[in-house]
Automatic annotation (TrEMBL):
Catalytic reaction annotation: apo-[alkylcobalamin reductase] + methylcob(III)alamin + glutathione = S-methyl glutathione + cob(I)alamin-[alkylcobalamin reductase] + H(+); apo-[alkylcobalamin reductase] + adenosylcob(III)alamin + glutathione = S-adenosylglutathione + cob(I)alamin-[alkylcobalamin reductase] + H(+); apo-[alkylcobalamin reductase] + an R-cob(III)alamin + glutathione = cob(I)alamin-[alkylcobalamin reductase] + an S-substituted glutathione + H(+); 2 cob(II)alamin-[cyanocobalamin reductase] + 2 hydrogen cyanide + NADP(+) = 2 cyanocob(III)alamin + 2 apo-[cyanocobalamin reductase] + NADPH + H(+)
Protein's cellular compartments: Cytoplasm
Protein name (database record): Cyanocobalamin reductase / alkylcobalamin dealkylase
Organism, scientific name: Brachypodius melanocephalos
Gene Ontology terms for molecular function: cobalamin binding; cyanocobalamin reductase (cyanide-eliminating) (NADP+) activity; demethylase activity; FAD binding
Superkingdom of this protein's organism: Eukaryota
One Pfam family recorded for the sequence: MMACHC
Record-stated family: Belongs to the MMACHC family.
Cofactor(s) required, per the database record: FMN; FAD
């Protein structure tokens, strides 16, 4: 069952520059405190959805051109929301719950921890302070970051698709590719991400197969309020 769902998602999302990676809710809940658990049985089938560098041209620009007058908030969020909501139409006989990376619970906690979901699905390796043997940071707060084996840091985690009626007790968990395997490189990655994230150097911590275009880099480097202009949208749309 998981394979059929995965193939349908691949054929639907792949042409949009989106990837879907399967996991069991239990894998995710097992590594988090109860306050962050997803409220589903452990064997429930879920997919984490990533946007790859090609999403900008394959999904965002066509969406903006077609839905120009309907864009009233962040264009990328609205584009991803549109396409993931349409995924439900591909599964008329299944319940599909969708969570987006920007959604918050009433407690102000995120609905899901995106990087943990990417790691347990095998999509990308979530490098954290605990992955460094000789920690050089003392009392500093150090945030972790996911690195994709093909795109490095040139990707984003956009949402979850959950299939509450599909239980997959025998699904085998794939290990994420440990592509930043030395202590020195992991320290460099976390230093770049925590203290120099604006320049994006952490994204190239490995040799990548594909990265954002110059146009896409300029878009994400622009303050959100000014991005509408770059896409040819009027400020009134905001």
């Amino acid at each position: 069952m998981e394979r059929r769902v995965a193939e349908r998602l691949r054929s639907t999302l792949g042409p949009l520059g989106l990837e879907a990676h399967a996991f069991k809710v239990g894998w995710y809940n097992a590594v988090l405190q109860p306050a962050f658990h997803l409220p589903y049985p452990d064997d429930t089938l879920a997919f984490v959805v990533l946007s790859t560098p090609s999403m900008f041209d394959k999904a965002l620009k066509p969406f903006v051109n077609k839905e120009r007058l309907k864009i009233i908030r962040d264009p990328v969020d609205q584009c991803v929301s549109h396409h993931l909501s349409r995924v439900k139409e591909k599964f008329p006989d299944q319940r599909v719950d969708v969570m987006f990376d920007y959604e918050m619970l009433p407690s102000r906690k995120p609905k899901f921890l995106a990087q943990t979901a990417a790691h347990v699905s095998g999509a990308a390796y979530y490098y954290q302070r605990k992955d460094v043997k000789l920690d050089p940071w003392g009392k500093k707060k150090i945030f972790g970051v996911c690195i994709h084996p093909k795109y490095g840091g040139w990707f984003a985690i956009r949402g979850l698709l959950l299939f509450p009626d599909i239980q997959v007790p025998f699904l085998e968990q794939p290990a994420p590719v440990d592509c930043v395997s030395t202590d020195e490189k992991r320290i460099e990655l976390l230093e770049l991400f925590n203290f120099h994230w604006q320049d994006g150097r952490y994204r190239d911590i490995i040799d990548v197969k594909e990265r954002y275009s110059e146009e896409q880099k300029a878009y994400f480097a622009t303050p959100p309020a000014e991005r509408f202009r770059l896409l040819g949208l009027s400020q009134e749309a905001q």
